[in-house]
Amino acid sequence: MSYVTGDKPSASGCVFCQAVGAGDDEAMLVLHRGVHAYVIMNRYPYNNGHIMVVPFAHVPRLTDLPAEVAAEIVQLTSRTQDIIQQKMNPHGFNLGMNQGSAAGAGIEEHLHMHLVPRWVGDTNFMPAIGETRVIPQDLHDTYALLKGGFSDDA
Fold this sequence. Notes:
Layout: H1 2-5, H2 15-21, H3 25-28, E1 30-33, E2 37-41, E3 51-55, H4 67-88, E4 92-96, E5 113-118, H5 125-130, H6 139-147
């Protein structure tokens, strides 16, 4: 509801670069910072707990990344999946990267891995009929739940 009634974010610049550079991880929903990549919640999620793993490097394709950066993205995705499984107990996950507008990338210029927890019966008539998604938990409540899973940051 805050999105519908609130001020809209500026359309200029990269939202991923702005989020990680803002200096307020909680406000930007950044859950964890690694060496080459970070974990951030999707502000406009497909489902509750929708997370993205994003390289600090502003590149559009996986092939643009050095091997160690790509490896960290996979490692952070795996770690995040474990945390979500422990904290939210989903029945499954969708994982993926959309590269290029033809592939469905909403933000083409900055590569990111989506991790979306799924539950049996988590879809209903609302997206099909009402073009509306129902998210049962406030983003900041989900942030607090998942942030604790990264408390052993090393």
